[in-house]
Amino acid sequence: MGQIIVAPAGARGFDTNNVTTAVAGSFASAGYRFAVRYIRRDPAHASDLSADEIAALHRAGLAVMLVQHVESEECWWPTDDKGRQYGANAVDACRQLAVPAGVSAWLDLEGVATDVAPDRIIRYCNLWFDVVAAAGFTPGLYVGWQSGLNPQQLHDLLKFKRYWAAYNLNLDAYPAVRGVCMRQRPALAGSIPSGVPFEIDTNVVQPDALGGLPTVWAPDEWGIL
Residue 1: pLDDT band by 50, 70, 90 thresholds? Predict the structure, then answer.
């Protein structure tokens, strides 16, 4: 059920590490068009996206994208083995949720230890990309604080073609040439729908400098809303 759609410029969504099943309708009523929800990196979490939550989001008229938990937001060390394993875990989570091929699945790159060489980060990201792309999903990179890569490295040395900017990513740290196709912002007063008891970030889709846009798993009627 549902359809794979290229998200239109200006579409507004949210991301959260909280289960939205009971309040999906509140987000739709507040004008949100999509949700970005977490899938497992290693151990599963009670707050991870579930098939029931996807169904609730779709019933409410919301599309879905997926992002994998980062190992640490403060300090962690990427390796080749982690790139392969975390990529495989992302694929496994998507398949368990019956996510169709083509949906954007995001790798969260932030909080990398400052003593990690850029080439090690690059290999980690590209190995993750290879596993996820081979399974038919569309890999994207969420670029946050302390990614360990500069704008030129992000563009020239990674295989990713879709980038999502964290709320704390300065404009001068955006990937060179391409830029980003989605921008995150902290939820401001009034942007959290009434009745939603948890924090969210807001996100807006925009074409990157080369025209790239993310893809979403949308309910059948989403394209005519």
Answer: confident
